[in-house]
Design goal:
The structure holds two protein chains of two kinds. By secondary structure, chain A is an alpha+beta fold. In chain A, 47% of the residues lie in helices and 18% in strands. Chain A folds into two domains: 99 residues; 169 residues, Alpha-Beta Plaits (2-Layer Sandwich), CATH 3.30.70. In chain A, helix 1 packs across helix 4 and helix 2 packs parallel to helix 4. The radius of gyration of chain A is 25 Å and the shape is elongated. Classes of the chains: A alpha+beta, B alpha/beta. Chains A and B meet through helix 9 and helix 13 of A and helix 9 and helix 10 of B.
Chain lengths: 305, 330
């Protein structure tokens, strides 16, 4: 964090809340936080506001909990403290400064995330290792990858897969999705913000449509690329480790969808995803099996005769 | 309906035909007489031509009348508000169907008289150069490039022309207020600009629910066709992300390649262009909601792999028309 941002936060604390409220705020973020121990002041002594504020901001920043601290400041500003209304001074300036540092405040999830125009990381700069989150996943699978590689010259296959990757990247970037895994024949893309289920589903439709156009305009393979897509969402522990991620329940469900319910040139979505879609989007997906008990739904690109 | 091409820039003549232009029995298209050769090259036997000679000097007038006399594809009448023509009867010896001199132009054109002129001769179909299916789209092209750098207001160029409108839901028209429609149109134009800007397109003329987009033409309009195909294929995505009404919204599109003088947007009131007339008729009268149509000239630029997704449909104003198949919406 920049020096000016730290100074702004210190000034905000001093001018908005007393030391008692600062202690409460810091314990929300670091439950065993002891301001006396940290500052060296004896407990019988009244710690000056400026010293308490400087210490808290420094300790929280050192602990890598700066964004949580600002999120708590925003909550204090919105909801007050123990029934008391509180206005946090310089809050807009702090948020503006954070924005200048490449982060945005996601009001729905009440967390700071990286500004995708500035940087893109796997966890959006926000998800914490070991914490659970509700995430929507889009799985893309290129059918017959082995045959494609065997039957075509290496440079044509490489060009084709680069262009396919561009189609996928273009569709997910505009919806703030992140590729969590990508191997030769497909991958897994995560969506966390906004209407995550809609974003994952519409990305799948766009990819399917663009692959259709790609096959008929630019593709140099002797046969069209065939893909299948699956969309599922659920609670998932965030991890940087793909070997651990692959064993999670959401991944097991996606695996079942892909192997048992998905077919070429189609998109399969699970019931929790369909539930969250606008009616006119959900209607494009037909139930697999009985209407009442179906867990999965499918969309295919079909044309009028 | 009787189709008349009126070549005139004389206010007296235009005023003489004013009432007739409002009649449902006549469709009168007004053109600049200076461009008569370009436009008449595409005219057929279903059109009657009235030609005002008042803007020409005697030499040009003679050439124009000689040109008209040579044509067998259409019937014509001469308008002579200043009584320039010395021997009007001679015009009839060379095939004219009507002569309207100064004395006749004090009032309005009488529908009965105009109908008599139109029916004065009947063109023998055997003499007609055109056969069913003939394209008359072979207008001379004046390539305008792939961007606007070399396009100057006042000059004539060939453009790719896209008529595009959002299909406003009937219940919105009947029940919702002006503010709602304005909100929808703001979203539409915002989306349209994002689509056409990378293709160097400009909204040239606006209509109630869309407009005419011009793209500089460098000999191919394939990227525009593909973008239009995407607009059809991505209807669900567009409805969900560009609009907030939780319902499927569609666009109707009609595309052609044509010539027009380019004037900046907002100063196009006096544009006289067969191509512009056509694209408006094509989009407004022919195109159905949610569909994408293009003319034979544009069809040439459809990538071969996508030709299967277009099929021929009824001809419109002597042009072959192709319609895109639609992805099924449930």
């Amino acid at each position: 964090m920049t020096r000016s941002l730290i100074n702004l936060c210190t000034k905000a604390l001093v001018q908005s809340i007393d030391v008692h409220e600062m202690r409460h705020l810091s314990k929300r973020i670091i439950p065993d936080y002891d301001i006396y121990k940290q500052t060296g002041f004896p407990e019988s002594f009244a710690i000056p506001s400026i010293d308490a504020a400087k210490q808290i901001v420094a300790d929280i920043t050192d602990s890598g909990l700066f964004f949580q601290f600002i999120q708590n400041l925003i909550q204090l500003d919105q909801h007050g403290f123990m029934g008391k209304k509180i206005r946090i001074s310089y809050l807009n300036d702090i948020i503006k400064e954070i924005y200048n540092n490449g982060y945005l405040f996601d009001s729905e999830n009440q967390i700071f995330i990286e500004n995708p125009k500035v940087q893109k990381t796997r966890n959006w700069g926000a998800l914490q290792e070991g914490e659970s989150y509700l995430i929507a996943f889009l799985s893309i699978d290129i059918i017959g990858n082995t045959q494609i590689v065997k039957k075509h010259p290496k440079d044509i296959v490489e060009t084709t897969y680069t262009e396919l990757n561009y189609i996928v990247q273009n569709a997910i970037d505009k919806r703030n999705g992140r590729i969590w895994m990508w191997e030769g024949d497909g991958g897994i893309i995560a969506f966390f913000f906004g209407n995550k289920n809609t974003d994952a589903t519409l990305s799948a439709i766009e990819i399917l449509n663009n692959v259709f156009l790609y096959n008929r305009t630019l593709c140099k393979l002797t046969e069209p690329i065939r893909i299948r897509a699956s969309v599922h969402s659920g609670m998932c522990e965030y991890t940087d480790r793909n070997d651990y991620f692959k064993k999670m329940d959401v991944m097991k469900t996606i695996d079942i969808m892909e192997k048992k319910h998905c077919k070429a040139k189609s998109i399969c979505i699970s019931y929790p995803v369909r539930m969250m879609l606008d009616g006119f989007i959900a209607n494009q997906f037909l139930p697999l099996g009985s209407n009442n008990t179906s867990q999965f739904y499918r969309y295919e690109l079909e044309w009028d005769k | 309906m009787i189709d008349i091409y009126l070549f005139s820039k004389n206010n007296k003549t235009l005023s003489f035909f004013k009432k007739l232009r409002q009649s449902k029995s006549f469709s009168i298209s007004v053109y600049n007489p200076d461009k008569y050769k370009t436009i008449l090259r595409r005219t057929d036997q279903n059109t009657f031509v009235y030609f005002d000679v008042s803007s020409f000097d005697s030499s040009e007038m003679g050439k124009a009348i000689n040109y008209l006399k040579r044509q067998k594809r259409f019937d014509f009448g001469i308008i002579d508000p200043k009584n320039f023509v010395v021997d009007p009867a001679n015009l009839f010896h060379y095939g004219a169907s009507d002569y309207i001199g100064k004395s006749l132009m004090s009032g309005d054109a009488k529908p009965g008289r105009i109908k008599n002129a139109v029916n004065f001769y009947s063109v023998d179909p055997a003499e007609n150069d055109f056969t069913e299916g003939t394209e008359i789209d072979n207008i001379p092209t004046m390539l305008s490039g792939h961007n606007w750098d070399n396009i100057k207001a006042g000059n004539e160029y060939t453009f790719s022309m896209l008529y595009i409108e959002i299909d406003i839901l009937p219940e919105w028209l009947n029940k919702s207020g002006k503010a709602h429609i304005e909100e929808v149109m703001d979203s539409f134009y915002s989306h349209l600009h994002r689509i056409i800007t990378p293709l160097n397109g400009r909204v040239w003329m606006k209509t109630d629910f869309g407009g005419l987009v011009l793209f500089p033409y460098d000999g191919s309009c394939t990227p525009i066709i593909i973008e239009c195909i995407k607009l059809i294929m991505n209807r669900i995505i567009i409805s969900a992300e560009e609009y907030s009404y939780s319902t499927i919204l569609t666009y109707r599109m009609a595309m052609d390649i044509g010539n027009t003088k380019y004037l900046t947007s907002g100063n196009t009131g006096n544009i006289i262009s067969d191509s512009v007339n056509f694209i408006f008729h094509f989009g407004k009268q022919y195109a159905e909601p949610g569909n994408f149509y293009l003319t034979g000239r544009v069809k040439e630029d459809i990538p071969p792999g996508l030709l299967d997704y277009f099929y021929t449909t009824d001809r419109f104003q002597e042009r072959n028309i192709y319609k895109m198949k639609l992805p099924i919406i449930k």
